[in-house]
Amino acid sequence: xxxxxxxxxxxxxxxxxxxxxxxxxxxxxxxxxxxxxxxxxxxxxxxxxxxxxxxxxxxxxxxxxxxxxxxxxxxxxxxxxxxxxxxxxxxxxxxxxxxxxxxxxxxxxxxxxxxxxxxxxxxxxxxxxxxxxxxxxxxxxxxxxxxxxxxxxxxxxxxxxxxxxxxxxxxxxxxxxxxxxxxxxxxxxxxxxxxxxxxxxxxxxxxxxxxxxxxxxxxxxxxxxxxxxxxxxx
Length: 234
Ligand code: TMP
What we know:
Phosphorylase Kinase, domain 1, D-amino Acid Aminotransferase, Chain A, domain 1, single chain, alpha+beta, 13 strands, 6-stranded antiparallel β-sheet, 6 helices, binds thymidine-5'-phosphate
């Protein structure tokens, strides 16, 4: 697989064309940002760890019937993926209160939610990724009603699958963010799934194993990502 021109550089990843029009290379960086890039830093080896963690999680989800963009991990920092048009909607699921849910609605961190919360955000850094609902998605023409339904059903299934997957590793899936893309007329899961995009707490101790360590300056970030990688690799 030949690596060609850079297509796009985001906050955590770089995308490159390949000699196939249908496939691109996703390169994982060590750069970390939080609060819409108001906070910036480096998490040493994050790109390598997130590439491996995402590989494991996408492989697992694919094996369970979720269509994803994942093709193969090429090396430490690069993954070969299908070239999708990203639906500009971020989908967040929350099982336990944390982060912006606590800030916006006054809930205490760690409160178990009686029902999982499903949120859409408009993927637009200039606007700060505002929360939107289905009416906004249709009015802004971000996705069709059929696409929203497919995204919703895949996301609920991913929540069930990943909750059980992490529970077996003694980790609680607190919340996570997904992105979907259009590929040859189908909606498939895209982007990454990693401690950058999930909140993961060790069951029993409550130890945080995700990017909140960076967001909140709690330290031991690399060790936490490595711990997640070790556990998912078993
Ligand atoms: P939040 O509580 O900050 O809204 O984050 C909810 C979840 O979404 C959390 O697991 C982190 C993830 N997330 C991203 O992956 N990218 C983002 O830009 C934001 C704001 C959150």
